[in-house]
Amino acid sequence: MEKNTSCFFSNSSPNLVITCFVAFITIILVRFLYVIYRTGKPLNKRTPQQTLSTLIVLGSGGHTAEMINLLLVLQKDRFTPRFYIAAATDNMSLQKARVFENSLADSVLCNGPGTCIPLCVIAFIFKVVGIRWSSIFYVESIARVKRLSLSGLLLYKLQIADQFFVQWPQLQRKYPRAHYVGCLM
């Protein structure tokens, strides 16, 4: 008589691997759906007086000027500390940010440069994975009167931005989840 020396799990190993894989995918999918559901809803744990560390995405040209003007109307003490990101070749935007300031974030504030998309996606992935919950605020450029920019359209359609602001009423009518805030400049 020959003894069976195979491992107990050898026959069930493929089933166990498939079950673990399905469970893992299910957990990720549930977390993803939860983040989509919660995106745009206020976080209950924050008080109105609590500060938010803020990541500000600067783009070349008019985007930086618009962002600096937007920062001028924000409550500086509410959105602190502030961290700035610009393209490696965009020294002028960082210099303008240094002048404004005189000297990982709870929120990301951006207004349309293409460089904001990867950062917003990373912040969104951090939410899904549970690393950090950063609110994403997108303000569409005042130059966009009839339709959203590509960056704005991506963030709007993918529901990545927690708050999506437009500066023209016809954009708010066309994109109902957007908040019309009027001209900010």
From TrEMBL:
Superkingdom, natural source: Eukaryota
Cellular component terms (Gene Ontology): UDP-N-acetylglucosamine transferase complex
GO MF annotations in UniProt: N-acetylglucosaminyldiphosphodolichol N-acetylglucosaminyltransferase activity
Predominant location: endoplasmic reticulum
Record's keyword annotation contains Transmembrane: yes
GO BP annotations, alphabetical order: dolichol-linked oligosaccharide biosynthetic process
Segments crossing the lipid bilayer: 16-37
Keywords for this protein: Endoplasmic reticulum, Membrane, Transmembrane, Transmembrane helix
Bilayer topology annotation: Single-pass membrane protein
InterPro entries according to UniProt: Oligosacch_biosynth_Alg14 (IPR013969)
Presence of keyword Transmembrane: yes
Subcellular location: Endoplasmic reticulum membrane
Family: Belongs to the ALG14 family.
Protein name, entry field: UDP-N-acetylglucosamine transferase subunit ALG14
The organism of origin for this protein: Gossypium raimondii (Peruvian cotton)
